[in-house]
Design a protein that fits this description.
By secondary structure, the chain is α/β, with parallel strands linked by helices. It has one domain. Helices cover about 45% and strands about 20% of the residues. The protein has a four-stranded mixed sheet, with helices on one face. The mean pLDDT is about 90.
Length: about 150
């Protein structure tokens, strides 16, 4: 039985959204024939993403949307500088391509105040992972281990 997986992000993709996408696609490649994943990539402004979020009483948005709505003072220049040359690398760096290589745990740490407030201001923060119509994660990059559990 195939699972329906939505990855909701930004366009062009940010390092976090692109890494989430690459990790899900990597897991699909590891799973083989018995279980398949139907992966759908959406932009947070797409009507399907907005209708889905509305159906659970939320809206879709980015860290900037959360910061504005939650009145969090963020240093966006610092966050952009973190994304230019990450000081450390994720566990699967050898399999990461493109913009996702700019992701680092430090980038997630810098955006954590937004991730922690997203639910309280009713925003599904990108990247958003939906599996079979249920939000599994939003606002950060799930680990490969956690993704394997959700997608198995």
């Amino acid at each position: 039985m195939a699972k329906e997986v939505w990855i909701i992000g930004v366009d062009p993709p940010c390092p976090r959204c692109d890494l989430a996408r690459q990790r899900v696609e990597r897991i699909r490649g590891e799973m083989g024939v018995p279980l398949t994943l139907n992966i759908r990539h959406l932009i947070y402004t797409d009507s399907d993403a907005r209708v889905f979020a509305d159906s659970i009483g939320k809206e879709t948005g980015t860290a900037k949307h959360v910061a504005a709505k939650a009145e969090i003072d963020m240093d966006w220049d610092q966050i952009r500088s973190i994304a230019k040359e990450p000081p450390s690398q994720p566990e699967d760096i050898d399999q990461i391509e493109g913009i996702a290589r700019l992701w680092s745990p430090e980038l997630d740490d810098a955006l954590r105040p937004c991730q922690e407030k997203a639910d309280s201001v009713d925003i599904l923060m990108t990247p958003i992972l939906v599996v079979d119509g249920k939000v599994k994660h939003h606002g950060g990059v799930p680990s490969l281990k956690q993704l394997r559990l959700w997608l198995a």
